[in-house]
């Protein structure tokens, strides 16, 4: 695994200011502006060469924004190349020619004006700095320049109460699973030490004395009790966390696990107690607004901590005119008396700017979309209602989350399992290997499980030979401490059998599947869903061996168990029908095969 201390791979700045100038006194101008405007290194890049400047601009993430200042003599040349890039937000022209007029640059839609004196540049940056300070943590950048993105997942609630979690929206469930896992991780003495080490080594800050002083302050004075205060401060902590959430940087989120857990605890302690409404001003793309319009009545989960205000007029302040984005005002109704809601609190007492009346909602808060419409000021109004996890649809999700979290009490391994479930195989692989590095040599509980999980990933990646080596290690260690009838041994047998099947070693695969089936039936029962899955696997192998009659018998056994345990539209019935269709196809009974394929298709349409 690449070490998460490689901070140079993660850039936390959200707004860049890029200056290109050929002026002989450029260095002096920059120094004066930085000093008087209190402009930190986070936001500034300066260049004398157009090619070098262009290369940097192109390297910036399209999720970031650039305010570009350029000498009039260089403007035409470089703007023709970079103006239309998504990351370019605004362009200012710097010139000593007082007669230069705006009209010469009007063809560039992102052109915002001409500056002829250094004090105008200072004013431009001072305005941004002051606005950023007033907004404190609600926005880290001037709304007129860039809007912090709001990322969310939408869950279709048009589901029967019998629907299984497997049939629910994957992104929605995985997002909740990741948050739940991070929040449940137990506290360790090294968490803050690892976090501080990362922050000190960040390439943007390692030579920034102001930043390093804040890092040192964090190390010396951070505690659970002041976590909300740290979140409200305009420092790297807020910016780094929210960007990690926005782009789902797994390694950074893992480093922040203690902070996420502490914030959740503080929000619970300071929980808002009376029903009411809050507001949030936001800019969204037309695509995102269309998603919301088409999702009225559905559930939405916010993939970040959600900052709101008690005052509608304050929320409206954040609605600047931003190209290609629409102005949106969220109105959120809530009842804190509902059981099972994520915490939210008035954090005014932690803020240096109490006039904003800020209410902060926990990461992953879930709301129902009540209405979406455009008002007479051309502002979109999105009405939300805070939901409880006792909601009919959400109940199955959170039952699933609690079941998943109880599978493993080794935090690092549990985190890897979440990533595995999310399909983040490379990331999961890294965390499983980290588990192996820290587990003692004599461990025979978690190590064989790690090898088993690594084998599953190798199988997913088509590395069958390597997968078998890992499964062999796992089953060897398990057999040293477990009885032959332990279900975990059968799990590994199933995994090995799958590799044999893929390799075409059908007899070996069939033998192992049958051994696994025998163990499962003794450990659980012949009517258990684990047996149904193994019957399915045996049926697939028999079909490949052209033993159609046997294959059909096994698939029918699997189907019978599923009928007794699963709702009618569960996707596993699609699996059973598809497999039986394959068998009838092999038997030449095409009409019967077609009926099964059509049945599978209908089930998949409803459940996947």
TrEMBL record:
Q: Which Pfam family would be a valid example here? A: TPR_10
Ordered alphabetically, the record's keywords are: Repeat, TPR repeat
Q: Where are the TPR repeats?
A: 409-442, 490-523, 532-565, 574-607
InterPro entries found in the cross-reference section:
TPR-like_helical_dom_sf, TPR_rpt
Stored SUPFAM superfamilies: ADP-ribosylation, TPR-like
Listed PANTHER family: NEPHROCYSTIN-3 (PTHR45641:SF19), TETRATRICOPEPTIDE REPEAT PROTEIN (AFU_ORTHOLOGUE AFUA_6G03870) (PTHR45641)
Q: What is this protein called?
A: Uncharacterized protein
